[in-house]
Amino acid sequence: MLKIERHNLIDQEIRKAGFVLVPDMSEMLQCSEETVRRDLKEMEKAGKLVRTHGGAYLVEKYDKGYPMELRKSYLQHTKEKLAEAAVREIRENDVVMLDASTTCLAIAEAILTRELNITLVTNSLAVCNLFSGANTGINLVCVGGTFRRRTLSFADPNTAEALRRYYADCAFVSCPKVNVEFGLSDNHISEANVRKQMLHNAQKKVLVVDHTKLEGNANILFEGLERIDLIITDQHLPADFEAYAAERKIEVRYCQE
User: Which residues, listed in sequence order, are joined to residue 206 by a DSSP beta bridge?
Assistant: First the structure.
């Protein structure tokens, strides 16, 4: 198949779903994954898409966030290990808040495996779907609002307002970027406000992030890092992060790979 034919097919697929995955395109185009990566690199230079780990996506206006399916495919094993570490913070009968990140979806899967009896408050449709057909002791609360297909989440001012009615023993958030100087940041104002409200209404505030989220900033700053009680991550923090955490008595826990 000629390169221009591959580019046209990639363009067609990415316009259908908003994203493509390298393994899927390799199979569809009957070429190597390395060839697909080179094609995506050329198409990014031409301004047709944005590459990321494992694929590429189209940027929505005013929103640089990755589509849910693309995020789910990335660092799956790492997210499972982060979730195993996070779920140890949860006790029977706790009220727990989870945001709409794929990391928190992994935490929800770990909760399901452990058969915990808790109240779970979330704005994630994926988390709700996970528990909808399961016979568990979970008291599930889904805070509604405007549905975002890109993230399979509910996020608008009504979502944040609904969260104000609940106080959690523990809130887990996994935002797109974290920075010592600027704190936690997001790509979408409504998602940022939801995460901020979850942290505000929780006794214990837990940030669960892999090492790739400790680089740079997203567009919307919503909370200072000093508000976090516990950071769970997969690799040793940079020196400035460790010094900041030690000075402010923020606990840091590394998951076991």
Answer: 172, 230
Contact 20, 56 (CB under 8 A): yes
Cβ partners under 8 Å of residue 171, min gap 6: 96, 97, 98, 198, 199, 201, 202, 204, 205, 206
User: Whole-angstrom Cα distance, residue 71 to residue 116?
Assistant: 26
pLDDT at position 55 is 83
Top CATH class of 3-58 equals mainly alpha
Residues in contact with 38: Cβ distance below 8 Å, sequence separation at least 6, in sequence order: none
Per-residue pLDDT reduced to its tens digit, 61-104: 445 555 556 555 567 889 999 999 999 999 999 999 999 999 99
Task: Tally the residues of the chain.
Answer: 257
How many angstroms separate the CA atoms of 209 and 119, rounded? 23
36 burial via Cβ count (<10 Å: 0-12, 13-18, 19+): buried
The ranges of the chain annotated as CATH 1.10.10.10 are: 3-58
148 Ramachandran zone, left/alpha/beta (phi>0; psi -120 to 50): beta
Q: Where does CATH 3.40.50.1360 sit in the chain?
A: 76-254
Instruction: For 16-152, list the strands marked E by DSSP.
Output: 19-21, 50-52, 55-57, 95-98, 119-122, 139-142, 147-148
Q: Does the pLDDT value for residue 161 go beyond 90?
A: yes
Task: Check whether 121 has a pLDDT greater than 90.
Answer: yes
Strand ranges across the sheet with 50-52: 19-21, 55-57, 50-52
CATH (one of 3.30.390.50, 3.40.50.1360, 3.40.720.10, 3.40.50.720) for 76-254: 3.40.50.1360
